[in-house]
Design a protein that fits this description.
Blueprint (H helix, E strand, L loop, with lengths): L2 E14 L2 E14 L3 E5 L6 H8 L7 E6 L2 E2 L8 E4 L11 H10 L6 H13 L15 H13 L5 E5 L7 H18 L2 E5 L3 H7 L2 E5 L6 E6 L14 H17 L2
Parallel strand pairs: 3-8, 3-9, 6-7, 7-8
Antiparallel strand pairs: 1-2, 1-4, 4-5, 9-10
Helix pairs in contact: 2-3, 2-4, 6-7
The chain binds adenosine-5'-triphosphate and magnesium ion.
Adenosine-5'-triphosphate binds next to strand 1, strand 2 and helix 1.
Pfam families: ABC_tran (PF00005)
Protein name: Hydroxymethylpyrimidine ABC transporter, ATPase component
GO molecular function: ATP binding; ATP hydrolysis activity
Length: 255
C-alpha cells in the first residue's frame, strides 16, 4: 500500500485581529491509497481546518504535507473532492449541471463528462432527478448529489466534513450504507469528519481522535471490520465495544 497523504508535524496558526489562534499542532498522519479514515474531536479543535489544508483551501503555517506527488500549500488542485455539511447546490442549475460544476468551471463538459455524471447519479439512485432543481429534492437526496459532484472530476481524495449532520437518523443510516458502497466501488481514499462515533466506526478503517484546540492527534484506533459493511454490524458486541472505547478516549484524552 502506498501513502497518498503524508503530514509531518503540520501546524496551523490563524492570525486574527485579536491575536493568534493555534488551530492545529504537530499533526503527523499518513493515509494510504484506498484507505477510509474518520476524524472525531471536540468542536473547534481544527477538523475543518485540516480538511481545508488537504483541499488547499487554506495554507498550513508549519511542518510539511504531501498529497500524491505534490506538496500541500501550492495552488488548489483537482485531486480533491469535498462534501460539506450543507449540500451547497446552486439553486438555478439542475442536478446534472450541479454535479458537472467542477468540470464546467474549467471547460465545456464533454459527452463523456455527462455520462460520468449520469453514472454517478445512477449509483446513488438519482438518475430520474437529473433534470430537477435542488429545491425539488429532499435534504438526503441533495447530499447524495453533492457526493456525486465531489466525485465527478475523478479526484484521488474524497473529503467529507460532517456531511450528514443535518439529516434525520434513518436517512443518515441509509447514506452511511451508500457511502460505504461508493467507497468500495470507486476505490477512493476518503477522510470523513463526524461528530458521530458510531458513524466513524461504521465507515472507517481507522478512527483518529483529536484533542481540544490546539488540535493534536491523541489516539488512532484501527477498525478491524471488512470493507463491506451493513447496518447489522451496528448491533454487534464488537461494534459496541469499539464505539465505547473511542467514546472513552474522547472523554479522557480529547478534553
Ligand atoms: N478563517 C479563520 N480565521 C481565524 N480563525 C479561524 C478560522 N477558521 C477557523 N478558525 C479557528 O480555528 C479553530 C478551529 O476551527 P475549525 O473550524 O477547524 O474547527 P472544527 O474542529 O471544524 O469545529 P466544528 O466541529 O465546530 O466544526 C477555531 O478556534 C476557530 O475559531
Ligand atoms: Mg468544522
Amino acid at each position: 500500500m502506498s501513502a497518498l497523504v503524508e503530514l509531518d508535524r503540520l501546524s496551523k496558526v490563524y492570525s486574527t485581529r485579536t491575536g493568534d489562534v493555534v488551530a492545529l499542532q504537530g499533526i503527523t498522519l499518513t493515509i494510504d491509497e484506498g484507505e477510509f479514515v474518520a476524524v472525531v474531536g471536540p468542536s473547534g479543535c481544527g477538523k475543518t481546518t485540516l480538511l481545508k489544508i488537504l483541499a488547499n483551501l487554506e495554507q498550513h503555517t508549519g511542518g510539511t504535507g504531501i498529497l500524491g506527488n505534490r506538496e500541500l500549500g501550492g495552488k488548489a488542485s483537482d485531486d480533491v473532492g469535498m462534501v460539506f455539511q450543507k449540500a451547497t447546490l446552486l439553486p438555478w442549475l439542475d442536478i446534472l449541471a450541479n454535479v458537472l460544476l467542477p468540470v464546467t468551471l474549467k471547460r465545456r463538459a464533454s459527452a463523456a463528462d455527462r455520462e460520468a455524471a449520469m453514472d454517478l447519479l445512477r449509483m446513488v439512485g438519482l438518475e430520474e432527478f437529473a433534470h430537477k432543481r435542488p429545491d425539488e429534492l429532499s435534504g438526503g437526496m441533495q447530499q447524495r448529489a453533492a457526493i456525486c459532484r465531489a466525485l465527478v472530476h475523478h479526484p484521488s481524495l474524497l473529503l467529507m466534513d460532517e456531511p450528514f449532520g443535518a439529516l434525520d437518523a434513518m436517512t443518515r443510516d441509509a447514506l452511511n450504507v451508500e457511502v460505504n458502497r461508493i467507497w468500495r466501488e470507486t476505490h477512493k481514499t476518503a477522510v470523513l469528519i463526524t461528530h458521530s462515533i458510531p458513524e466513524a466506526v461504521f465507515l472507517a478503517q481507522r478512527v483518529i481522535v483529536m484533542s481540544a484546540r490546539p488540535g493534536r492527534i491523541v489516539e488512532e484506533i484501527e477498525i478491524p471490520f471488512g470493507r463491506e459493511r451493513t447496518l447489522e454490524l451496528m448491533g454487534t458486541p464488537e461494534f459496541a465495544a469499539l464505539s465505547a472505547r473511542i467514546r472513552r478516549d474522547f472523554e479522557v484524552k480529547a478534553a
